[in-house]
Amino acid sequence: MKLNEGQYSLDILGDDFQQITLALEDDYEGKVVATIIRKKSLVKSSKAALYIHGFNDYFFQSEMANHFNSEGFNFYALDLRKYGRSFLSHQKLNNVRSLEEYDEEINKALQLIHLEENNKVVLLGHSTGGLIVTNYAGRHLNSSLFHCVICNSPFYEFNLNSFERKIGIPILAFLGKYMPDKKISSGLSKFYGYSLHKDMFGEWSYNLNWKPHEIPKVGLSFIRAIYNGHKNIQNHLKLNVPLLVMHSDRTIYEKKWTEDFMQGDAVLNVQHIEYYAKMIKDDVTTHAINNGMHDLFLSKIPVRKLAYKTLFDWLKTKID
């Protein structure tokens, strides 16, 4: 893998953020790319973090990069194939048939980070990104390219009732093998987006074409990919690097707008996260953040300050 400084260009976030496009192998939709976003620490460092976003998402959290920089980490993020900066006009947004598809861009990103003289690397994932990085770590035991994993509200189970989880999802996942492009509702509420975006009730500015409030329908192939990822987690996945799983202390189930969306997880069941995290074998730490939103680092200022403190306190015990 040969990349150099001249191949980076200014990112849409500005302010010393740079990006580089990764050409990937064509897939069932044709041409595929991924995008690495980078912000280097102002002090010379051999420590780095690689962030993987969630579903209906892309990297826009400049505050997160700045926090890692201030702690002496070079910061990298991936916009995965078919998300955000990497979305191409012929593709279906967010489309995937197996979480292992993402190995190609994660591998290339980690190789680039290593070539840029980082030898202590944190894999960091939010929601579906948390499911992706946990599975990735389980498939890449003894890798020298990453040294610990941190998950921010990882998507370890569908937030559905017992019948839907045990009967409905397996049936949809089975059908996804034969009808991958059949669309169904994502089941996600627009109010989570309302709680984030500055034009509604939140404080964040981001591209609503890449992260819309009204979540697009998903293909059955997506359900199948997530279901298979869940089975790996729930069958006592083995890791050999430390894992920190952070999540809110409560789940929000409101059907209309309320301030509760600003102080709980409106996407996943936090009890599921805690339960399945503890089934993973190795050095696993779980931590509930009081009043945290689904993306803990987009919560209200006092909450996200606590989330960052929790993260970096843990990191100091795992990375020299």
Question: What tags apply to this protein structure?
Answer:
320 residues, alpha/beta, Rossmann fold, two-stranded antiparallel ribbon, 11 strands
Describe this structure in words.
A hairpin with a 7-residue loop joins strand 1 (9-10) and strand 2. This protein has helices at 62-70, 103-115, 128-139, 162-178, 190-196, 220-234, 270-277, 301-318; strands at residues 9-10, 18-27, 30-39, 47-52, 74-79, 120-126, 148-152, 183-184, 218-219, 243-248, 284-289. The chain is globular. It has eight helices and eleven strands. Helix 3 crosses helix 6 (220-234) and helix 4 (162-178) crosses helix 6. The two termini are 28 Å apart. The strands form two sheets. A nine-stranded mixed sheet has the order 1-2-3-5-4-6-7-10-11, sandwiched between helices. A two-stranded antiparallel sheet has the order 8-9. By secondary structure, it is α/β, with parallel strands linked by helices. The chain has a single domain (5-157, 238-318), classed as Alpha/Beta hydrolase fold, catalytic domain (Rossmann fold, 3-Layer(aba) Sandwich), CATH 3.40.50.1820. The longest helix has 18 residues, at 301-318.
